[in-house]
Description:
The protein has 8 helices and 4 strands, in the order H-H-H-H-E-H-E-H-E-H-E-H. It is α/β, with parallel strands linked by helices. It folds into 2 domains: 3-47, Helicase, Ruva Protein, domain 3 (Orthogonal Bundle), CATH 1.10.8; 68-195, Dna Topoisomerase Vi A Subunit, Chain: A, domain 2, CATH 3.40.1360.10. Helix 5 (86-95) links the parallel strand 1 (76-83) and strand 2. The longest helix is centred in the last third of the chain and has 14 residues, at 149-162. It is elongated, with a radius of gyration of 20 Å. The chain starts with a helix and ends with a helix.
Amino acid sequence: MSNKIKKITEYLAKLPGIGPRQAARLVLDLIEWPVAELDGLARSISDIKSGPLLCKQCFNFADNELCEICASHRRDQTSIAVVEKVTDLQSMEKTGIYKGVYHVLGGSINPALGMLPEKLRISELKTRIEKLKTLTRNIEVIIATNPNMQGETTALYLEEELRPLAIKVSRLAHGLASGSTLEYANETTLANALKNRR
């Protein structure tokens, strides 16, 4: 294998879920691409860290300081769905039902992997709520963590942390199968879980 191909394969194999064989297959596919598309891919990868990457308010992907959802005047800024990852946010958006905004924690509590509460964006959520409380008391936080052990632990921790703020806190209804993740839930299941939240 040439050094060029080997180097690209090594980089691709660093991505989660991509092993050396899968990386080699991807490189073989990339070889067939036109030069213009390869140049476009290279520029896109190179530009990924230039300018804003995450929304300063909710930590969704963004091209500006605020993501499209946070910047929209059509969204209910007093309803905040707290999710673990951006992919969970995207899954909820696909339902077309939720009209509020989001807050991406950046993971879930998992001491075995070193993910402790202070590594999540919980303090940013509390600061955001406190600022919002200066405008209105009618705030709802929907805890939309995954229905697995880490998600449940995170949800319980969040409920305790948010209790002193005297706001409405709800959770997604248990229409989601235990042990599943929001990222792979279908739109109907997520829609029902949103409608029947408690």
